[in-house]
Write a structure and sequence with these properties.
Elements: H1 2-18, E1 23-25, H2 26-39, E2 45-51, E3 54-61, H3 69-76, E4 84-92, H4 102-108, E5 115-118, E6 127-130, E7 136-137, E8 140-142
The structure holds zinc ion (ZN).
The site of zinc ion (ZN) has 5 residues, from loops.
């Protein structure tokens, strides 16, 4: 009986670990939309930083997803504050399309488990979060 209980607990904690990010701070989302708009027609890329399952901060990166930003992301993967963690990448598209491209999918599989793509016109209806495989996921916008 004891063993059974422990097993159950382990399974549920594993599941939790798999998808620990469930929300995004409203102000952070607005900042992402604003910076995406300002960066247009260039792509904007930033790391997503979460605290207790909610994306609270972004860290702007130079370059493009296929370029030098990969190395920079690696150094950003271990922030000094252990309560904060980089969970993935946000980037903008210079079009209305906010589906991941082939290159995006390749990139997603290599960094983190929560990614956001923003498309034109960069408002609350023109973004989507994805998991590492490019499947759409729901992020709750938190006040
Ligand atoms: Zn893309």
């Amino acid at each position: 009986m004891k063993f059974f209980k422990r097993d159950k607990k382990e399974i549920s904690s594993k599941r939790e670990k798999k998808r620990k990010v469930w929300g995004i701070n409203k102000e952070t989302l607005y900042l992402i939309l604003e910076v995406s708009k300002e960066s247009y027609p260039k792509e904007f890329i930033a790391t997503l930083i979460a605290k207790k399952g909610v994306i609270e901060e972004i860290n702007l990166l130079p370059g493009t997803l296929s370029g030098d930003s990969m190395a920079i992301i690696r150094t950003h993967m271990q922030p000094p504050d252990i309560t904060l963690s980089v969970v993935g990448i946000v980037h903008s598209h210079p079009s209305k399309e906010f589906q991941p491209s082939g290159a995006d999918l390749h990139f997603f599989s290599r960094f983190g488990n929560t990614h956001i793509i923003v498309g034109k016109p960069y408002n609350v209806d023109s973004w989507q979060a994805y998991d590492a495989f490019g499947n759409p996921i729901e992020l709750k916008v938190v006040d």
